[in-house]
Amino acid sequence: MNKRTSIVVVILAIALGMAACNSGAMRRNPGKIYAPDMTYSRAYDAYTSNPNFEDSQTSRLPVEGTIAMGHMFPDHLKEGDTVVYKTFTTSLRFNDDEMAEGKRLFNIYCAICHGSNLDGQGPLYTSGKFAAMPANFKDGKYLHMPIGQMYAAAKYGKNMMGSYASQLDQKQRWMVLAYIKKIQSENGGDAFIYGTTPVAPIAAATDTTKKAEEKKKG
Length: 218
Description:
- This protein is mainly alpha-helical.
- It has helices spanning about 5-20, 35-40, 80-85, 95-110, 110-115, 125, 140-145, 145-155, 170-185, 205-215.
- The chain contains 10 helices and no strands.
């Protein structure tokens, strides 16, 4: 390579280098892009046709077998399967804050009928709106009722009570029922096992016991 050729090569190299430099706001040509469809991907609105999929649908179903963050596995409970209801339960255990939330939800959705004291004396019943008394959760009929039966009633409804599946998600239903079971355990029901620390049941005081205690005090 002679001297003249070397000078030409150097000049071309410098020219190309300067051409490749960013000239700021004055530059109008961004240059060439190797894969423009990846740099500037085309967006499709949710309900528009999309040629990238066989069914031409932009909105896609979740991958089979996956669960969205913050959601639980489906309970697979079927309406009317009363045999399964009796054995259906949960492994969830609730701390004090979650139990307080269960009480709050109960007072919002349940106390209007069942009463804030869980005794069936809710405002709708005491006002004379209903002839039949709602469930008294402190009554012997309900004290030992399997929690699965109660869960099914909350999900599908029972008698005059409608379904609360749209108002309460799975965890919220269990929190409400855990609150009910805790109150029942304090009124002669089964031991409370749905908290972080199990609590032994407290026997409900009978009339005889109450009279004996009053006699001692007197």
